[in-house]
Amino acid sequence: MSTITTILQQFSEEEQQEFARYLKQKNRRGDTKNLQLLKILLSGETNKIDEKLYGKPARNAYHALHKRLQDSLIDFVSNQSFKGETSEELDTLRLLLAARIFFEQKHYKIALKTLAKAEQLGVQYEIYAILTEIYHTKIQYAHLQHRESLQSIIIAAEQNLKHFNQEQHLAMAYATIKARLADNPRVSAKRVIIEVLDSYSISPNTGLTFKSLFQLMNVLVTAAEMHRNYYDIASYMSELYTIVSEKSALAEKHLYYHILILHLMGVSHFRNKNFKASLSFTAKMKLQMDKEKGKYKRLFQEKYTAIQALNLNYSGAAIDAISLLKVNNNSIDGQLTLIMFHFQQSQFTEGYAIFRSMNHSDQWYEKKMGWTWVVKKSIIEILLLVELNKLELVWSRLESFEKRFSKRLKKAGETRALTFVKLVRYYYDNPTQVISAAFEEKVEDSFEWIGTEREDIFVMSFYAWLKAKMTQRNLYKVTLELVTAQTKKSVQ
User: Fold this and answer.
1) What contacts 239, CB < 8 A, 6 or more positions away?
2) Domains of the chain: residue spans and CATH
């Protein structure tokens, strides 16, 4: 399989269509065959492609065309990657590149003016990496400066270098934290972060940028998702957000990262079942998205919609949550969330119809969403098949789940997922036994309950299905009772 085919298979259908449009716009001649080649590669064909394109063997022409298509794919992916950058960074970089071109063309007056704009923007938005290149250029052409001395430029460059090195150390710390958490999934994320930051002499209070604070919060949330333990990070998230609040005067300058931080806070509070606080942060997020003529609204709309729908659903407004996702969210995670909402309303056929439309391989979903997401997707599929009584598919998925995830779940300390699937198997084998005292005792003995306050909301949602079966009650009502319980007692 060629590199191009591998990359194309990782694209969503929308990304594939967008790449085709990109090629069409790029083509200057009507006889260009790159779109034909793209169509063939997307179809999965691998034999005699040159003959399909040219009507006869033409290996050299095919290889040249394949090379040009690969170059176009690289350009397309790099252009797409810029969408993840803030407009301030792009604007600063564009000004720097323009200034360098003007210098090369000996248009010194406009070059100096453009470079000064780039510096002003870089300083304003604390873009230290690009500022390093700006000061390098200023020093290179210092002999053309009339308003600034070389010494003042060097002082500014050295000051920026200190900030840049701090960001570099934070990047190293960030990578070290992720590596340590991956090597030892059971360790406390908060403890690892504090230890690693201390080893790099970094303190959250020592002038970290919005981007740096976002990175710290993001690694906390990533670790919490990995461990299914958002409770342990809650206090540290609040500490970091206090620092963000103290930088409120800079929030407008760092709107992109400020919105991301508000989203992470909304997610953290939701996963800890504090829906009121989560909704408060989503409201702040919406307010920031509407600023500067809504330039980030489209970029963050799916994130906002997803967390808003989750809060609505677990606050008892399931119909509103389903309507919101149907109208405003087409993301992969949004689809799985909508399936879960339908499932909780016993709308199994509707949920399964959406599930069947998710036709990428699990390998593709794992690259996009992570393997724990694929585990959740697999469990939801099993429960849907059980409810729809698709006997052969139930057994096939149960066997597949054990083979594919057993080792990784045990290594990650997530044995409860395996226990839950075994109980699902037992229920499907013995449906009449589910209301017996023996089955209830079996369930109680199978899990180590950590209390409703600490327990993850999605873990509780899966358990709610078993509880509803044992008590013969409505699944959604049982789910809400479990996740909104305010005591610290174990789940009964």
Assistant:
1) 204
2) 3-84 (no CATH), 87-148 (no CATH), 165-295 (1.25.40.10)
